Give the backbone structure.
Amino acid sequence: GRANFETLFISILCLFIFFIFFTNLNNQNEINFRNSLVIVLALSTRLIPGIGRIIESSQSINYSWPCFKDFFQETINNSSVYLKNKNILIKPNNQKIISIKNDFLIRSETKLFNIKNFDLKKGSWTCIYGESGSGKSTFLHYLNNYLSQDNDLSLNIAFMPQTISMVSNNIFENIALSKKYEKTKIKNLLSELGLNSLISRFENNKNDSDDGIIDLSGGQLQRILIARALYHKKSILILDEFTSSLDNKNEKKVLEILKRKQFEENITILCSSHKVIVEDYCDFTYNIYQENLYQK
């Protein structure tokens, strides 16, 4: 980090000055030597903060790069995903957000599965089950992209993919997605989700940069993304395998929080999962089996 760099830089500078001093010990032009040394020291003190900021910026880019990489990769992958017959309607009535009938999902000209009837109802929790590779994630990505084209819905959707990365080394900025945030509100969310230890780690750090905050488990990252969605009060949550890295205790805690938010704030939740416990919290479940999507 920046502190390590500055320590190394000053050490090298001291060695350099020490070396120059002894090599010029018998130098008769002592005034020029001293002037040069003063200039080197002055320039060095000016360079350290600037180079430190460059290092901090490169770290932020490094942290954020997986997000950009995944975004562009998903954009490329999902540009070739579509419904063959285009039998899809957004907000067909006041109760439904989206409806698909008698169609099938295509990816790169390969048929994934048939869809006889699929509805996403407003204020409901809908879960999609299926084996790995059946097309659950592809379907969620497709629905997210399609719904995001609607001006009324685009600003109210929070999408949580399986691949998660941080956009900053500041725990509060990661949730607010801004340098301005409601600290108390974020603390309450993190506390609800069992992430009090992250608050302590960040606030006990001398700087606001906390070099170690990025070193998080998969379960912690998943809960941070859920906290982000809840912080911004999105009315539609699309969650792809959102409890896959959670232990049983934290998984139940997250499911109970989401169920409560669903009722209190009329949130619509669409998720994919392979865990049986998630079904206990859902209003509707679909299963992808033998290239068919059907309601259980």
